[in-house]
Amino acid sequence: MATPGHLEVRNVSKTYAVAGRPPVRVLSRVSLDVQPGAFVSLVGPSGCGKSTLLRLIIGLDREHGGDILIGGQPIEGPALSRGIVFQDHRLLPWLTLEDNIALALENARWAAADKAAAVRDHIALVGLAGFEKAYPHQLSGGMAQRAAIARGIVGRPEILLLDEPLGALDALTRVRLQAELQRIWRLERITMILVTHDVDEAIYLSDQVVVLAGSPGRVATEIEIGLPRPRDRASVEFVALKQRILAAMGEDAAQRPAA
């Protein structure tokens, strides 16, 4: 029986047509199996197709080889069952915080009262109660990203896709929001898939880290993170996992031919 939130990526390949140049193959036969409620991170060098894979999962691009299934059903386009958060919060500057979050529910077939309650509850969930009427320019970078996370989960998706959501933040704010993201994941039990260049972040947050190699992007290895939470970044086990992931990424770089 198909299970909500179960993501299956089967032999997915993606090629882009580039004017005046031969077609560029970005992904090559990528396969993943993400269990419901899991937190999985995708790491790898720039250009290995991590963000492209997220675009395919969210349904923004259907021109690909292979199959992507959620709950046993093929993806046919964007849907409330999949939320996404980008590196740039992408809040509309002319809307208040609550209106920006409510925008994610514009096409939801919910009663107005249910939409209002969901917006209110998710503003509280990300710790922004009291800022409902604030505009984006009145929020710090960390607060704006919390708002983006609230917008991503307000529709109660089965899967939340995170494309470098903390990459533009200063180090201290980033560490704080990593803890916040983990807290939200524990409370909501949404399947989360994170693209990040920060190996520490991937180990701290994830049940599993998938190392992509490129180009074209392919799965180099999958590493289970069996450390108990909360995780100590200075522990011997944490450091060993980091070295193992970096080695997997470095081995791929060493094997690529020189340009």
Automatic annotation (TrEMBL):
Pfam families: ABC_tran. The keyword Transport applies. One of its GO terms (molecular function) is ATP binding. Residues 7-239 form the ABC transporter domain. Keywords: ATP-binding, Nucleotide-binding, Transport. The keyword Nucleotide-binding applies. Belongs to the ABC transporter superfamily. This is ABC transporter ATP-binding protein. It comes from Chelatococcus reniformis.
